[in-house]
From TrEMBL:
Keywords: ATP-binding, Cell cycle, Cell division, Cell shape, Cell wall biogenesis/degradation, Cytoplasm, Ligase, Nucleotide-binding, Peptidoglycan synthesis. GO terms for biological process: cell division; cell wall organization; peptidoglycan biosynthetic process; regulation of cell shape. This is UDP-N-acetylmuramoyl-tripeptide--D-alanyl-D-alanine ligase. It catalyses: D-alanyl-D-alanine + UDP-N-acetyl-alpha-D-muramoyl-L-alanyl-gamma-D-glutamyl-meso-2,6-diaminopimelate + ATP = UDP-N-acetyl-alpha-D-muramoyl-L-alanyl-gamma-D-glutamyl-meso-2,6-diaminopimeloyl-D-alanyl-D-alanine + ADP + phosphate + H(+). The lineage of its organism: Bacteria, Bacillati, Actinomycetota, Actinomycetes, Streptosporangiales. One of its GO terms (cellular component) is cytoplasm. Coiled coil: none annotated. It holds the Pfam family Mur_ligase_M. It is found in: Cytoplasm. The gene is murF. Its EC number is 6.3.2.10. Residues 318-444 form the Mur ligase C-terminal domain.
Length: 459
């Protein structure tokens, strides 16, 4: 955040000031929507959710060091009152970017955004000051909060951009116009709100490349036909990545290493270099290549990119997060969120990690699958059986029960159990697990299996 007076911020966002003693007081630190994350010199944004009203925490945020609160109404504390807090944060973020000059990198896709963002940040920050999206703060609130962490020293601004519906990426790129745009893939995440099929998802995701300038770069996945189809929607220079021979940034000699870690030969226009990822699952190759494509567009050579990938570690919780218990049980917490693509990738990664060890899956519903939901859950149940998991616990009624039924293959011997909720799933898993087991846990975030995974990891 570049230092700005309260008076200047009020002018930028169109705010009226209440209970402000000094209009020239400087905001010198980023904004926060959680009063527990306020830092001295920052700005507290009071948002209203279904369960929590941020206005109730404004005074506490000021006591914690915030200079003022951005609010919808007077809140008994120094406040900049606006009609729309979310819109105001976007205006402030756009104003900040007009006064600093980082290279803005936007990335989107149905799966893999957060892991790719974490890998890319770890490549770039070895070379220059880099600010990247925290956790999965990739929506209309999270993106401006990320931008407001940047300052005059920031060279690279890596922005994960989520799209729940058409128009979302147009809005986000309006706040932070990217010079570099990366599209990972087109899947079925948010299908319920985007349309009837992957073509509708592709239409929404392609808004990112439409926002790129003629002197920018569009990094497109050569292995995904829907992403390749976006080439005609951008003025920017196109760089293809993937495992396809036509990709200029690609992987050769892909192999599974120790404990399901993947290794490959990275090939870029600048040369070749060996990569050994510290992340489980072969699907991580695509995420690594996506990050490598961005770094290539920014001028890094193959060796520099490989060094960054080799040193990279998992940064975000709940995404193939591995905990080894003293009794030899391995917990694979992938419960941050779920869709069919990430569910398949996670199940395969956990099975590869297990090798000959006993495997247990604890799976809940995958949200926003529209009319295809029951069929998608049935497919996952069949995959659990085909991969020869030893046991499956499904969580919830409806579609998870379809998953359970599909896994009951008489020839493959999956022991299938059903739980009504996460608490019951925890009890079932605790009773079922044996020393040496590998347990994989995944569902859409609203199911609450993250707490189940953490409890099992701490047992």
């Amino acid at each position: 955040m570049i230092p700005m007076t309260l008076n200047k911020i009020a002018q930028v966002v169109g705010a009226n000031m209440y209970d402000v003693r000094d209009q020239r007081a400087l905001v010198t630190a980023p904004a926060a929507v959680d009063s527990r994350e306020v830092v001295p010199g920052g700005l507290f944004a009071a948002t209203v959710g279904t369960r929590v009203d941020g206005h109730d925490y404004a005074a506490g945020a000021i006591a914690a060091g915030a200079v003022a609160a951005l609010t919808l109404r007077p809140a008994g504390a120094p406040a900049l009152v606006v009609q729309d807090v979310q819109l105001a944060l976007g205006l402030l973020a756009r104003h900040l970017l007009e006064h600093i000059s980082p290279t803005v990198i936007g990335l989107t896709g149905s799966v893999g955004k957060t892991t790719t963002k974490d890998l890319l940040a770890q490549i770039l920050e070895r070379h220059a000051a880099t600010v990247a999206t925290d956790r999965s703060f990739n929506n209309e609130l999270g993106l401006p909060l990320t931008v407001l962490r940047a300052d005059a020293a920031t060279r690279y601004l890596v922005l994960e951009m989520g799209a729940g519906r058409k128009g979302d990426l147009t809005y986000l790129t309006g706040i932070a116009p990217p010079q570099v745009g990366l599209v990972l893939n087109v899947g079925t995440a948010h299908l319920e709100r985007m349309g009837t099929g992957p073509a509708d998802v592709a239409e929404a995701k392609g808004e990112l490349v439409e926002a790129l300038p003629a002197d920018g770069f569009a990094l497109l996945n050569a292995d995904d036909p829907y992403v390749l189809g976006m080439a005609g929607r951008t003025r920017a220079q196109i760089l293809l990545y993937g495992r396809s021979p036509q990709a200029r940034v690609r992987a050769e000699d892909v192999r599974m290493g120790d404990r399901a870690r993947t290794a490959f030969e990275l090939v870029t226009p600048s040369g070749r270099a060996p990569v050994e990822l510290d992340l489980i699952g072969e699907h991580q190759v695509s995420n690594a290549l996506a990050a490598a494509a961005v770094a290539t567009a920014l001028g890094l050579d193959a060796t520099e990119i490989a060094d960054g990938l080799n040193a990279a570690r998992r940064r975000s919780a709940g995404r193939l997060e591995i905990t080894e218990r003293p009794d030899g049980i391995t917990i694979v917490n992938d419960a941050y969120n779920a869709n069919p693509e990430s569910m398949r990738a996670g199940l395969r990664a956990a099975k590869a990690l297990a090798g000959t060890r006993r495997t247990v899956a604890v799976l809940g519903a995958m949200g926003q699958q529209a009319d295809t939901s029951r069929a998608r859950h049935t497919e996952i149940g069949r995959l659990v059986a085909d991969l020869r998991f030893d046991a499956l616990i499904t969580v919830g009624t409806g579609d998870p029960l379809a998953m359970a039924e599909a896994a009951k293959s008489p020839n493959l011997g999956v022991a299938v159990h059903t739980a009504e909720d996460a608490a019951q799933a925890l009890k079932l898993a605790t009773a079922l697990l044996e020393p040496g087991d590998v347990v994989f846990i995944k569902a859409s975030s609203e199911i609450g299996l993250g707490a189940c995974a953490r409890a099992l990891a701490g047992a």
